[in-house]
Amino acid sequence: MASTTEHPHEIDKAAQPAPVGQENAVLVFEELDRILESKFFKSSPRSRQFLEYVVRHKLDGHTEQLKERIIGIEVFQRTPGYTTGDDPIVRVQASDVRRRLEQYYQALPDRPAVRIELHAGSYSPNIHWSSAVSETNMDHPPEPLPAQAPQRRSRAIPFLLAGLIPALVVGTGLIFVHSRANRSPQTALEQFWAPVFSTPQPVLICLAKPVVYRPTFDLYQKYAQTHPGSFQTEVERSNQVLPLEAHDQIAWSEMIPYPDYGVAVGDAYAAVRVSSLMGQIGKPSQVRIGGNYSFEDLRNSPSVVVGAFNNKWTMQIMPGLHFSFVEDHGQYMIREQIPGGGVWRGSLRQSQQIGDDFAIVARLLDSKTGQFTIVAAGLTGSGTQAAGEFISNPTFLERGLRSVSPDWQKKNMEIVLQTTVTDSVAGPAWVVAAHVW
Description:
Distance between the termini: 49 Å
CATH topology of the largest domain: Chitobiase, domain 2
Number of domains: 3
CATH class of the largest domain: Alpha Beta
Radius of gyration: 28 Å
Order of helices and strands: HHHHHEEHHHEEHHEHEHEHEEEEEHHEEE
Shape: globular
Largest sheet: 8 strands, mixed
Helix content: 25-40%
Structural class: alpha+beta
């Protein structure tokens, strides 16, 4: 944290500590609310949850709960015997919270009345006060609420009023913090991804790597004999199309499988979006490509399976579901597997850069792998790109899930998405059909 000379809003830390009263605890809750609703924390559900947890237990006087292993178990759903040395999730998240707190206070135009800090090497937050309020090291839990507590303009108001009714509560602070601790995830994105925290295993982001063929070096040289100076370097051969005429004949031996190539562009975009999101919510992830993962891997970890017809695992997971990918006489489509069900075909062609594409997002709590599985796959790479953006964008998820059954959080779900593609770039997707079971 910056020193007082480096930051104009730094609060004097030399003041004498004093026991915290209930009114001061309310000020801390109000400041916590402001922090969590700021742009620095709104985009990171895991940082919000981490900060709420440590501040709540600090105010409760339960500092014994502020240990790395306990935080890992309580906040990140790790198993009781997990190895903190191999799984640094708590340390990583604490570092992210410190960074976000620094950004939050640096952006304030005025000196705050109370400042919440998380020093390096500790998970116990420090609360510092301006000169107008007695500073405290928060070593004591809040005192009982005075009979006439002043009203505050914050979300703590309902809990403060409840604290005046002895038959219902013991203290306002406890009611407030426990209600926050036990609340359900507040955003569609948090609810959508909540099951990934039921296991300590990382999320596998699984991409296909289909067979790709490439001209041999001899074929490039043959072309160069009639076009001197062309395709003399690997940079040219990797980045330029070999412009053979339609009537030119080549032998099959002049084309070879090339294992270094093969990941579809749309799949890569989707994987990057999901991987970035996992980092933001504090869940470790691993990207697996082609033969670098097996069904056994899918059985042991939650997974996001990317791509449709090019990914064998998608095609093995999807049969029997309400919406499935179907290839019929060389045409790709999504079909609703009921009598008279809907059929969705894209209007894109290889030579076109504009049109509509369709995708499926499947959220399976009990997939064939036995693990929480998400499928994000389109008829083409554009649809897959749109599906990846849909499941990683809070705004898109919030808007898209409004039309879905309100109890989808604890059920399996499939969504059919449509996206308009312009210049080979998929636009925001919208829901055209959904099924929850």
